[in-house]
Design brief:
With about 325 residues, the chain is mostly helical. The protein has two domains: about 220 residues, HUPs (Rossmann fold); about 80 residues, Orthogonal Bundle (Tyrosyl-Transfer RNA Synthetase). About 55% of the residues lie in helices and about 5% in strands. It has 13 helices and five strands. It has a three-stranded parallel β-sheet with strand order 1-2-3. Strand 4, helix 8 and strand 5 form a beta-alpha-beta unit. Helix 7 packs across helix 8 and helix 10 crosses helix 12. The chain is globular and about 75 Å long. The structure holds tryptophanyl-5'AMP. The site of tryptophanyl-5'AMP has 25 residues, from strand 1, helix 1 and helix 7.
Length: about 325
């Protein structure tokens, strides 16, 4: 019964092809936990506008990301899947939060500083980003928010928005908690940095077998010669093996004894990744564009009803809801 379960919500930007980092860091933990909760999955298309300026690309990315998530195990019968822009109450509530937090507070956000340091335009949307995210979470009274480590501070910002509102207008929002899968942590990319599209170090989730092999074979290694022991604690490929190997203990022993070299290790990794994702790939190929659009329309209807109930209360509390 949806009513008796705790609410859980997560979001992701439709920023192109999903990679193994998204899958292990967010998608899989979400799919595994969703059945225990009243779960919602939001496509953050307005967040994406802070950096993506191609309408064609954005449209395609939205459809792709929903198809990817459904193919990878999110069941629209149990999870409300919707896009942010379909529920206007998100931007409406974000504005109210923006009127409660200060510029110095927002300017401390790591994600904002990192993105600007990477050369992204410091537009006002990027700056206000955490308040739109707070609205995403708080509109639905979400108790839990499954995210990767990089989003931890954004959840703190959501708690702060809830707190500021409650102090100003009376208890309205419960403080949400992040659900960070500690055993997953940050998934490294092929160069050892966090796997991220903007670093160009990704292994695609739905790439062709060859694209996956090429990405895996490009994983950075040191110059240890074949036959010498390898250190599983520092090897990037080994960090990924942990998520795909059917027998990680045996592989670890082979690393330490020098029985396996980097090349062989990467070949095994590529084949294990391919074996894991090939059933998902078949499911994805069978999903039509129309089916994806229907999922989004159905999800938007549920989300809108929930969001409007909360916003009606919020409008009254702040003094703009007169009738
Ligand atoms: P986004 O789209 O950058 O990433 C989606 C989710 O994937 C996780 N993630 C990773 N986890 C581990 N290792 C990695 N290499 C890796 N790369 C990505 C992210 O932590 C995230 O959980 N601001 C959010 C989207 C958002 C949101 C929300 C999330 C908007 N509104 C409300 C939760 C609740 C973002 O840009 O995620």
């Amino acid at each position: 019964m949806a009513d008796t379960k705790k609410r859980l919500l997560t979001g992701l930007q439709p920023s192109g092809q999903l990679h193994i980092g998204n899958y292990l860091g967010a998608l899989k933990p979400f799919a595994d936990t969703a059945p225990e909760y009243d779960a919602m999955l939001m496509i953050a298309d307005y967040h994406a506008l802070t950096s993506l300026k191609s309408p064609t690309q954005l449209r395609e990315n939205i459809i792709d990301v929903v198809a990817d998530y459904v193919a990878a195990g999110i069941d629209p019968a149990n999870v409300v899947i919707f896009k942010q822009s379909d529920v206007m109450q998100h931007t409406e509530l974000a504005w109210i939060f923006e009127c409660l937090v200060t510029v110095p507070f927002l300017s401390q956000a790591h994600a904002y500083k990192d993105k600007v340091a990477k050369g992204l335009e410091a537009n006002a949307g990027l700056f206000n980003y955490p308040m739109l995210m707070a609205a995403d979470i708080l509109l639905y009274d979400s108790e839990f928010v499954p995210v990767g480590e990089d989003q931890r501070q954004h959840i703190e910002y959501s708690r702060e928005a809830a707190n500021k509102f409650n102090i100003a207008y009376g208890q309205t929002f419960a403080e949400p908690k992040e659900l960070i899968m500690s055993h997953v942590g940050t998934i490294p990319g092929t160069d050892g940095k966090k796997m991220s599209k903007s670093y160009g170090n990704t292994i695609p989730l739905f790439g062709t077998d060859d694209a996956i092999r090429t990405a895996v074979m490009s994983i950075t290694t040191d110059s240890t010669p074949v036959g010498a022991p390898l250190n599983p604690e520092t090897d990037i490929a080994f960090a990924l093996h942990k998520h795909f190997s059917p027998n990680i203990k045996e592989l670890e022993a082979r690393y330490r004894s020098g029985e396996i070299g980097y090349k062989k290790s990467k070949e095994i990794l590529a084949e294990n990744i391919i074996a894991t994702i090939s059933p998902m790939r078949e499911k994805r190929a069978a999903l039509s564009r129309e089916a994806v659009i229907q999922i989004l329309k159905d999800g938007a209807e549920v989300a809108r009803t929930r969001a409007e109930a909360k916003m009606k209360l919020v409008r009254e509390k702040v003094g703009v809801g007169l009738y």
